Amino acid sequence: MASQTGERGDRRFVDPLGAEVPFDGTSPITWSLRANVLVVRDGKVLMVRQLPQWGGRWELPGGGVEVDEALVEGAARECHEETGYRFVASSPALVDVQEAWWMGSHGMYHHGVIFVFRGDVAGDVDPDWTQDDGEIAQVAWIDPKDLTAATTRSLHWCALQKAGLV
Predict the structure, then answer these.
(1) Quick check: 102 and 16 in contact, CB under 8 A?
(2) Considering the entire predicted model, what is its pTM?
(3) Mean pLDDT of 67-92
(4) In what residue span(s) does the Nudix hydrolase domain sit (predicted)?
(5) Which member of 7, 80, 144, 145 lies 3.0 to 4.6 Å from 165 by CB, making a disulfide possible if both were Cys?
(6) What angle do CA 76, 79, 82 make, to 5 degrees?
(7) By C-alpha distance, which of 109, 21, 117 is closest to 60?
(8) Domain containing 94 — which CATH number?
């Protein structure tokens, strides 16, 4: 994402595909570090679908990193929480790093740095895992050719492009 100054001098934020992200220019913005995983198995990518109120788009599993976690540990924890799979990074090297601005719940603006790790998942879904229906709508292995820029969160679409999958 990029920050740009408009004609009136107000700040506006633009996602990696050029879409403007709404911001009122005065509200506080919270910072966060986020980590996502890129896993391909049998030619399909592990994805989660956002809830309809957040756009209903596909995205890579992941989320906020806790203060006491390394980035890759946060990515693995978030992958397990969202999908039930245990993520194993193939390398400490990143697939992608992006900035993102978004409006969260309760009208809070967020500015995050998102790190995407590539790896695999160990085995099948944890039998004790249950999907959090308050966070995501669906977990699926998706053929990359079935994803589009319109159906995939923009920063994750860019990560898929950098990985050569779309």
Answers:
(1) no
(2) 0.84
(3) 95
(4) 30-164
(5) 144
(6) 150
(7) 117
(8) 3.90.79.10
Which two structure tokens, joined as six digits, stand for 74? 């946060």
pLDDT mean over 42-52: 95
DSSP characters over 73-99: HHHHHHHHHHHS-EEEEEEEEEEEEEE
Residue with tokens 């779309």: 166
Task: Please check the confidence at residue 10 and state whether its pLDDT lies above 60.
Answer: no
From residue 106, give the alpha-carbon distance in Å to each of 43, 47, 55, 70, 78.
38, 26, 16, 28, 22
> How many domains are contained in the chain?
1
Q: Give the integer Cα–Cα distance in Å for 106 and 4.
A: 25
Q: In which domain, by residue range, is 49 found?
A: 30-162
pLDDT at 1 over 60: no
Phi, psi dihedral angles at 106 (to 5 degrees): 65, 20
Neighbours of 158 (CB within 10 A): 19
